[in-house]
Design brief:
Largest sheet: 6 strands, antiparallel
Distance between the termini: 23 Å
Helix content: 10-25%
Number of helices: 3
Length: 145
């Protein structure tokens, strides 16, 4: 369902996945695309988005397709950061959960720390049952078939 939003509000990540913007792609395949975050919160900050329009992590289920997709997103993000920020001592990979997600299209934040500026780390904290940021590995545990 690439492009699945209202006609007056096209999804920016669907547009990027269809290559209908001037955004430079760090990676592209039939399942995901990776881009630099336009408002980076860390030394390196990439987004790996699904090609298919999936609004949020809450739309993922305990099924092989969703588990495989998130695993692939994580693998792509890890590969990119290890290539582009090998000097970083710490990486973070995760998703914002509603209502704290900025774009309603599934996207993995891939961060090579440190946070820049340091206060931005607040945006990447888990708020437990209230949501916030969920680490990719924890999401994989939740959706494992």
């Amino acid at each position: 369902m690439v492009g699945a939003t209202s006609p007056s509000q096209p999804c920016i990540f669907c547009q990027i996945a269809c290559n209908s913007t001037s955004t430079s792609l760090l990676h592209s395949d039939d399942k995901v695309v990776a881009i630099q975050d336009i408002k980076p919160a860390a030394f390196r900050h990439y987004l790996v988005t699904s090609v298919e329009h999936i609004p949020t992590v809450r739309d993922l289920q305990r099924r092989n397709e969703d588990y495989t997709l998130v695993s692939h997103m994580l693998s792509v993000g890890q590969t990119l950061l290890r290539r582009d920020a090998p000097e970083s001592n710490e990486y973070r990979f995760g998703f914002h959960q509603p209502p704290l997600n900025s774009v309603n299209h599934l996207h993995l934040h891939c961060l090579a720390l440190p946070f820049i500026p340091r206060w931005k780390r607040i945006k990447y904290l888990s708020l437990g049952p209230l949501g916030g940021f969920i680490e990719a590995e924890k999401l994989l545990e939740k959706i494992k078939p």
